[in-house]
Amino acid sequence: MKKKLGPSPIIFPMPALLVGTYSDDGTPNAMTAAWAAACCHRPPCVGVAVRHNRMTFANLQKQKSFTLNIPRSSQAAQVDYLGMVSGSDEPNKLEVVKFEAEKGEVINAPLITNCPINLECKLVDRLALGSHSWFAGEIVQVHVDEALVQDNGKINVKALDPLIYTTSTTEYHSLGKVIATAYNVGKQLMKDSGK
């Protein structure tokens, strides 16, 4: 038997990401977001949910660009701080956590250089949903620490060790062990069913 919990966005795990934007005066800002996902392959797009009262919301509306920055699990304290403290209250919050930012190569948004992966995104749409709006951005450039790029061009996710968030327990995690290879483990079931 299953227990009914009522409507709640309890999808997990989720990535713990930093959304990079510039304030009106050009100060780099970063907000922690877990409600983010890839949303299109061609053109490559990602989306992120942002609460309307956040400084990042206003920055996104004005700048029409943002970065998604993927931190390591070892950066949990800094990421947590950046999610709890508003840039409106502490404009130099990146300095507090000793993170550095540099201007994006293609768009007007800061890359958080301490994060091993940075996605430069051009805002393509906003969907107002209620307490949050979904901002969809086309990825126009991806920056990855060289040490993470394997000879085959793929990212070594184990070496990246990305920070992961679970909504229902409000905890940060790191990746666990590999269970199976996607688009492979189900082949026997396809064969057995004649598909």
Per-chain topology:
Blueprint: E1 14-15, E2 17-22, E3 28-33, E4 36-40, E5 45-51, H1 55-63, E6 65-70, H2 76-84, H3 93-96, E7 101-103, E8 110-112, E9 117-128, E10 132-144, H4 157-160, E11 164-166, E12 171-173, H5 187-193
Antiparallel strand pairs: 1-11, 2-3, 2-6, 4-5, 5-10, 6-9, 7-8, 9-10, 11-12
Description:
The chain is α+β, with helices and mostly antiparallel strands and 195 residues long. The chain has one domain: Electron Transport, Fmn-binding Protein, Chain A (Pnp Oxidase, Chain A), CATH 2.30.110. Helix content is 17%, strand content 35%. The chain contains 5 helices and 12 strands. It has helices spanning 55-63, 76-84, 93-96, 157-160, 187-193, and strands at 14-15, 17-22, 28-33, 36-40, 45-51, 65-70, 101-103, 110-112, 117-128, 132-144, 164-166, 171-173. The strands form 3 sheets. The chain has a 7-stranded antiparallel beta sheet. Strands 1-11-12 form a 3-stranded antiparallel beta sheet, with no helix packed on it. It has a two-stranded antiparallel sheet with strand order 7-8. Strand 7 and strand 8 form a beta hairpin. The longest helix is centred in the first third of the chain and has 9 residues, at 55-63. The protein is globular, with a radius of gyration of 18 Å. The two termini are 32 Å apart. The mean pLDDT is 96.
A few lines on this structure:
The protein has 195 residues and is α+β, with helices and mostly antiparallel strands. The chain is 17% helix and 35% strand.
